[in-house]
């Protein structure tokens, strides 16, 4: 029995026999990678308003990480506020066409009727939040210093006294005078609180504008709030 030696020429011939994958296969692989990344890893968001000034400016574009689903007081998060802050999904996506379009978009982690917001978590389940006439915020009886607010800005221009139910979050923007947050929805069903399950993730990188490019770092987290004693829901 004889054996034929493998030469560079025969290896090249073997490679030539293997046909390259069609373009559409590469396209489907790319779409699958995009769907996985968007659904489970990261997602890009545009900041349309000034409710988070000075931490986030109008027009900022940020990358939000979905890898960590544990959040604390003081964390900035992006959340789906469709059913809480947004008044419900648009009817334009409820018909046959809307359902088909929503189904296709859903593969890529896009909810066509979703209304997303970016705010800071001020209260978690069990917390007792109070703002008196002087505008000072207390959490579970402890007065809070909020270093992320602009100089001279009070915690709130109008008083409130709420207890956050378990599994819910009380959200406020850093630009308190221009933020329609949980305070603006205290009289709505749910009392302005959002379910923890509606949190999409926390911003980790600002990539636009280029002059403000960089990681969010400590600006997206305020440890002094997280370190406050836990409350007990009533």
Helix coverage percent: 10-25%
Main beta sheet strand tally, sense and closure:
8 strands, antiparallel
Beginning-to-end CA distance, first to last residue: 87 Å
Secondary structure category: alpha+beta
Shape type = elongated
- Contiguous low-pLDDT stretches (5 residues minimum) are 97-110
Integer-rounded radius of gyration: 24 Å
What's the CATH architecture?
Answer: Ribbon
Spell the H/E element sequence.
HHEEEHEEEEEEEEEH
Counting DSSP H or I runs of 4 or more residues, the number of helices is 4
Domain count, please report it.
1
Number of β-strand runs: 12
**CATH homologous superfamily label:** Umud Fragment, subunit A
Could you say what the CATH topology is called?
Umud Fragment, subunit A
Q: Give the overall pLDDT as a whole number.
A: 82
Q: What proportion strand?
A: 15-25%
CATH class: Mainly Beta
How does the SSE layout of this entry go?
Elements: H1 8-17, H2 23-41, E1 42-46, E2 61-65, E3 76-80, H3 96-107, E4 116-123, E5 128-131, E6 137-139, E7 142-143, E8 160-163, E9 168-172, E10 194-195, E11 199-208, E12 214-215, H4 223-226
Antiparallel strand pairs: 1-2, 2-11, 3-4, 3-11, 4-9, 5-6, 5-8, 6-7, 9-10, 11-12
EC number: 3.4.21.89
Catalytic activity: Cleavage of hydrophobic, N-terminal signal or leader sequences from secreted and periplasmic proteins
Protein name: Signal peptidase I
